Amino acid sequence: MNSSGDTFWQKLWKQKALVLMSLPFIIYVIIFKYIPLWGWLMAFQNYWPGNSFFEQTWVGLENFRLLLSDPVFFDVLRNTLAMSIIKLLSGMFFSILLALVLNEVRFAKFKKITQTISYLPHFISWVVGANLVMNALSTNGIVNDLLLNLGIVDSPIMFMGIPKLFWWIVGASHVWKTVGFGAILYLASIVSISPSLYEAAVIDGASRLQRIRYITLPALKPVIIILLIINVGRLMNMGFQQIYLLSNGRVIEYSRIFRIFELDFGLKMMRYSFATAAGIFRSLVSIVLVFSANQIAKMMGEERLL
Q: Which residue intervals of the chain are DSSP H helices?
């Protein structure tokens, strides 16, 4: 029976099982994502706890002016975007690379062991993960021991105390923790590729690298672009826990991101309206980024969200 003429409610009833399965998530999003948006009004007030919400002093865009004129604002914006872009590009690159390598491995046991080892760090909290990273990079950690034994350096390097290295430490630790789990999605996409394409390529004399280049990567392209668009929208929100735990006073100039800025210069100083204004700015930038990425993909004729 052709259901193209069904009304919205008829289609909804036919898919009631899917709707019921989605209902808890819809309720979660409404309660924890949409209802709290009324709190954005604090950004236009000089909010102080104890007074009724609607008895606060309204100050218009004053908090946004203070935010944009803050001396560390542009450093925070630079740090946030730089570290998020490093994490995004390095994470996707190494996840795709691992998926391609695992797909070419013919020893099933070795493949399973490698895949298990690679995605285990995903299940470690950043509280534990940050300590592992700091211990490995300490002056008496495994990295310095290796460099000294190989004769690459003459004395231990205090990696966590060099500001300009912090972005790359964050990127490398992100790859270590997420590369295995990220590769699972790409492996699933690779499995869906028709084996007949590879068989035809082998008959035509294509090498492994040529099969990857002309079959595997083009098949992964839609998934890569969709994930890229989604992650671009999260650039302003990535990595608070990781960066907060790895940060220290010596590298604060390069480690302070927007969410840490909101915490230190907003909530800790009881500047609730200022913190809300910073959060709104972060959300607006995220919206602009995801729509821009989606529009660029549309102009290039690629897969997109909308």
A: 8-14, 16-29, 62-69, 73-104, 108-119, 126-137, 142-149, 166-191, 195-203, 208-211, 217-232, 240-246, 252-255, 258-262, 272-299
